[in-house]
Structure formats: structure tokens, C-alpha cells
Amino acid sequence: MYTVYLESDQARYWLNATGVAVNVTQDLDAWACVDKKIVMIEVLNFDPATHNIVSFVTNQAELVLLFMPEFVTDSWCREFDHPNVVMFLGGDLNWQPRYARINRCFYLLWSTCDFYQTKPELLSISSTTKTHFFDVLLGRRKHHRDYLYNNIDQEKHIVAYFPTEHDQDITQYSSEQFWWPTDVLPVPNDPVNFTVQEVIVDGTIVSLSQILPRDIYQRTWYSVVAETETSNNWSFFTEKIVKPILAKRLFLVCSGQYYLRNLQKLGFRTFDGIIDEGYDVEPDLTKRMDLLLEQMRLLCTQDPVKIQQQIAPIVEHNFSVMTRADWQKQMIDEISCYITDLS
After folding, report:
1. Quick check: 331 and 104 in contact, CB under 8 A?
2. 85 and 128 in one domain?
3. Same domain, 94 and 147
4. What is the chain's mean pLDDT, rounded?
5. Helix or strand run (H / E) with residue 217
6. 337 burial class (0-12, 13-18, 19+ CB within 10 angstroms)?
7. Judgement on whether residues 120 and 101 belong to the same structural domain of the protein
8. Which of 20, 24, 19, 21 lies closest to 40 in space, CA to CA?
9. Which range among 39-48, 124-133, 296-305 shows the weakest confidence by mean pLDDT?
10. Contact yes or no for 139/226 (Cβ under 8 A)
11. Same domain (yes/no): 25, 154
12. What end-to-end distance do the CA atoms of the chain give, in Å?
């Protein structure tokens, strides 16, 4: 029987869900002494300590399962590109590893959807008269978000942007910086220093960043998603793209090259033909953002009611894909197959 080394409760949950008979240990030294070895590591931080563990177990185990739901670098994908390594990523690579096998770990997608499956009433967006075209909720300061902020007509769009790239108490931000979702969550007395910080909505735990900005969606027609990463080497899918899909909205995405193409590979549809999505294939980030801004300006010249009619089949399709996909079960089934294939 194989012995699996793991560290996190989440990895243990996924392993237990497979139903595969294995020994489990959290003692790395004891694990190193057995003959038939597997490792499951949930990479929460790309830090030196975790790197050292991954380096060690890669040279020891017959099978290394690495889970990277926070897919903020592909450097480890290159470094640990070995035949015994399987990587479960929170996105898609735009290059092909030579040896390692690639699967998906869409934790931010399924956890957001799971919350709204328990609270479907929170997906309801009232028909309040629209006052602006786009919502551009930028979050923490980054170069690509600076560029958007400085080049967007803020009279036509609702734009919110954190005052700093550092984490600060979000409850103290102004409406120009962050719109607190007061319709579902009163502002707490304790500080909230991260958008991923857990809060409680009607007794259910969810990250603040996963709550739909319904107040803003009621006032705007479309969304600009300023994703976490802009690398052309990979796409990282976060709760930022889930929210407009659940709210059945047209969206433009400021991210790396081929983000939309990779989204389409998951079964989603985007809006080419209604707008020009050529920005997705542009390799230069500044040019890509300029092309995106051009599409924003073009949409502002068109009748939004007619646009809503055109996008209706697309947004309904995307909502169905997002809410019906069971990415966690698919991942658990894949884990099971990789382990049983060793027998």
C-alpha cells in the first residue's frame, strides 16, 4: 500500500473523497523511509520553505500531486517539470510542459459558485435605472489597473480603486475606493484588511471578494474585469470573472494574452461579434489595454438595451456552465485515477 504525505486539511479532504485505500502521514521523515511514496502538497505560498519541501519530495516520490489554486507564477511549473509530477492549477498555461501532467484546481470558481448555490436569492439584480455604462472595480493597485484608472472616462463609468497596493482596513475606504455590499453585509466593527478575508453572510462563510456588488450592477450595464495577473505565459481565473458571469453580464477582461481563449476552452462563450475581442491576442500589454478601452468607448455609443438582447443567449449559456460545472468533483476523480494507476 502506498503512503501519502500531506500537510493541509484541504489536501486530506480531497484524498479522503477519492476513497482510495492508502496510508496517510504528516511526518515527512517517516514518509521518506517507506518504499511506496506519494505526496500531495497544496501550495499556499510560493515561499522558500515550501520550495524546499517540493524539491525534496520530487526526488523521493513515485507520484507528486501539486495543487496551485493561487496561480500567480508559472516558475514552479517549469522547475518541477518532471514525469512523476502532476500539477493542478487555478488556470491554464499558454505553453506545454515537457514531462509534467497538467490538470485544474479551480478553487476560487467552485467556492464562489457553492456560496451562491446556498444563497441563490443573492443573485437577483433589480431593474433599477442604469446610470453608467461600465463598472470597473479595480481592487489593489497594480500597473495594469493604474493604466485603466488613468484612461477611463469616470463620468460614464463607476470606477473604484484602492488607494495603495498594500493591504489596509477596507472598512475605512471611501466609495471612490470600495463599495461595501451593504445590501447583504453590514460594515463590521473589526478591520477587514484583505478582500479575501472571510465574512459571514446570513450564517454562511464567504470571502468578501466573492460577494457580487449588486448595488453597482444595478447601476451599470457592463463589467471590466481587471484580473490579478497579466502574464502572457498563463491565465489565472479568479472570483473576479465568476461574478459577472453569475450576474449574466457582458464583460471585458484586462489580463494576459489568450485569457478569453482559455476561458472558452472551459466551455464559456465570450462576446466577439458584438464587440471586437482582438485585444485578447495582442501580446503587448499596453496595446492590449488600449484595444480594450477602444471597445469600451464603442459600447458607450450603442443602445445598451439592444446590446442586452444580443448577449442574452451568451450570458445564459455562461451562467449554466458556471453553475453546473463540478470542477472539484472532476479534480477528485482525477486524483483517484492518478493514484490507482500506480497499482
Report:
1. yes
2. no
3. no
4. 96
5. helix 214-217
6. exposed
7. no
8. 24
9. 124-133
10. yes
11. no
12. 9
pLDDT at residue 312 tops 80: yes
pLDDT tens, residue by residue, 120-142: 999 988 777 899 999 999 999 99
Strands 250-254 and 158-161, bridge-based pairing: unpaired
End position of a domain, from candidates 58, 77, 105:
105
Separation of alpha carbons 125 and 47, rounded Å: 41
Torsion angle of the four alpha carbons 23, 29, 30, 36, in this order, in degrees rounded to the nearest 10: 60
CB–CB of 252/157 below 8 Å? no
State how far the Cα of 12 lies from the Cα of 128, in Å rounded to an integer.
Answer: 46
Handedness of CA 45, 50, 52, 56 (dihedral sign): negative
What is each CA distance from 163 to 149, 177, 178, 342, in whole angstroms?
12, 7, 10, 51
Q: Does residue 335 lie in a domain region?
A: no
Eight-state DSSP code of residue 197:
S
Looking at the structure, tell me whether residues 170 and 293 fall in a common domain: yes
pLDDT digits (tens, 9 = 90+) for 174-231: 999 999 998 899 999 999 999 999 999 988 899 999 999 999 999 999 999 999 999 9
Both 66 and 161 in a single domain? no
Identify how many contiguous H helices and E strands the chain contains and give both numbers: 12, 14
Domain span at residue 62 reads: 3-105
* pLDDT of 291 strictly over 90: yes
Give 294's pLDDT tier (boundaries 50, 70, 90).
very high
